[in-house]
Amino acid sequence: MTSYFDRSYYLKGIRDGLPFIFVVAPFGLLFGVVATEAGLSIFETMSFTVLVIAGAAQFTALQLMAENAPTVIVIISALAVNLRMAMYSASLTPHIGGLPFWHRVIAAYFLVDQNYALSSVKYEQEPDMTLPQKFSYMMGAITPVAPNWYLATFVGALIGKTIPPGLALDFAVPICFLAMIGPMLRTGAHVAAALVAVTLSLVFAFLPYNLGLMVAGIAGMITGAQVELWTERRRAS
């Protein structure tokens, strides 16, 4: 039976994923606090975080639920925020698509921003990595992240309003995404997509239920794809 575990690359993944603890912990604490303040029980909060394991989508859905948004809007918005996971999956398919079914299921469940960012960079840096090495590295990268996300959410749900507002736990959200996105803006298409998305998210901030973010995200993806096409045409001409 083929082994899809490589200890050395698993440990490399853990080492590279460790720094994310410093942003995942306050991120999870914040979600636990916000969820219980919104009226969810500890069981509901933990079920939410274990089943979804996607911070941005969880916060989006929770905020809309607190605003009594229509259920359809809540679902569509959460799915739109998590649409990036489909792109992550497509990006990783050439690397780990050959895994057995249950390995792919595990990889899909634990696919989050942090281990995607680390894995995609690692696969580019070491194109000769074997399938077991790639899978092991990806699982290693999520090992410091997922358990701490669960634990921090649980602690946040337990202590709730006892956390002083001065701690400003919400700082972890933008820092986490800046840390991941910054190093990935390597081409003109990436930069153009980011600029359009940021600009339009500000322009359409007045739209209800955070619909402006959906508009900005779609426009950013279209812009990035178009710039990529222009670049390829210029190289071919």
From TrEMBL:
Tell me the leader sequence span. Answer: none
Provide the alphabetized UniProt keywords: Cell membrane, Membrane, Transmembrane, Transmembrane helix, Transport
Record localization: Cell membrane
Membrane topology recorded in Swiss-Prot or TrEMBL: Multi-pass membrane protein
Q: What is its main location?
A: membrane
Q: Does the keyword Transmembrane helix apply?
A: yes
Q: Which Pfam families match?
A: AzlC
Residue stretches spanning the membrane: 20-40, 47-66, 72-89, 137-160, 167-185, 191-211
Please provide, in alphabetical order, the Gene Ontology terms of the cellular component aspect for this entry: plasma membrane
Keyword Transmembrane helix present in the record's keywords: the answer is yes
Q: Which GO terms describe its biological process?
A: L-valine transmembrane transport
Give the record's family classification: Belongs to the AzlC family.
Q: What is this protein called?
A: Predicted branched-chain amino acid permease (Azaleucine resistance)
